[in-house]
Amino acid sequence: MASHADHNLWEQERAFLERERAEKPELFKVDPTTRAGILPSIGITGLHPDLPTGYIRYSPLDFLVEEIAGKDDVVEITAEPKTGRSHETERGTVYADLVKIGISTIDAVQRVTVSIGLQAEQVKYAGIKDATAVTAQRISIRGSSLEAVMKLDVPNVILKNIREGKGALTTGMLDGNRFTLFVRVPSNFDATVFSNRLSDTNHYGVINYYGPQRFGVPRYLSHVFGLHILRGDLDNLLRTVFYGPSPTELPYHAKIRERIADAYGDWKAMRAIYAPLPYSFRHELAMLKEIETGGANGPVRAVQAVEQQANLWVRAYASYLANHLLSDWGRDPQKMPATLPLLLSMDPKARNLYLPTLKEHGTDRFMEHLRPFRFINIGRNPEIATRAFPKMRGVKVVTEGVAISFELPKAAYATTVLMHLFDAITGSPIPEWIRPEEIDTKALLGLGSMAEIQKAFRKELDLAATMRKGESEESEG
What is the 3-state secondary structure (H, E, C) of 60-94? Predict the structure, then answer.
């Protein structure tokens, strides 16, 4: 197996954290009341006040995402290593269906890239899929061969349906996504309230908010990082990335950030503080390296060193602005247009829509401040639909929770649908009422089975269950 640096760092860190958790369990508990402030902090203030409680992402199996690449072309979550034929007249690109568990698309693609010895720009994908999930999507690989890709053995990843072709994927080159989800619910779950909300969703659709995952779990500060970049304020960007407080972060990590704040400017000391957690703080460490060696240009180089993350930070700020407008319009649906232009646009009309807020935030000269960061793309006229209409495939309520499957077009998200159906919670602490059974949601809905994937990812699923058990025991304590 090729070396997978980030996976090795994660394994190293996990063993360290298990010891720390045993010694200091109080630092691994999050106050559940902090959840109440997440949605308003990211611009969402227009949800229904009476929603049943539901817990999402208890297990990666509870959140299944399959990319709809085109009409009648769904990249399915299966484990079989199907191989396509080579075509003499269609060479230059290797395409593969990537099935992953427990890591983001960015991390999965990076592992593939490192394993095969390529540069980041040679491996492309159409969209970013969730980390705490099992997902399937297409990737394109330039500069390699069918045989080399077939030999890859990548942690948390299955590559299948590998074949040769032409061209390459670009961001947005998909029709949408198919979601098959299991939402855990308490014993007093009101199925009638849920049914009424589901009926409204089917009839009226949902306001197409950008959900919490867009803003960087668990700190939910990505839009603040993006704001500093668009202000041209890299000093405050670095300080916020390194030690900005967040009520939703584990106290253990928050304590580390407090030490970083005290040591700020002593780069060697900061490196030593971060060192025991080289995976959790991998982005901070990459930025710190550039600050140490980059001289006056260190802050710019620090952002460039984490360009994929920086791109997400800037887009999170644009999403925050969009959420605010959608919340305002949601209070008076007659005002809501069919589409909403996004900030990062070449169309001056789109920019003018946000101008009062940009001036208030000091981000109105953002194009000037993006010049050092050419990797942050400005679209011709990007926009989103203000409402999303999920195409339902199945719903079933059982003792443990609600199984639901639906399809959405691109630029619409499953968590957006769920926040209109449930008072959706996730992460720590895990509620005591959770029933921990492993659920095959596809089988429950008569849409296939996850048995094959459960077998292929058994190690990863067992590890996730062990970690959940530890969190549950701490919550009960």
Answer: HHHEEEEEEEECCEECCCCCCCCECCCCCCCCCEE
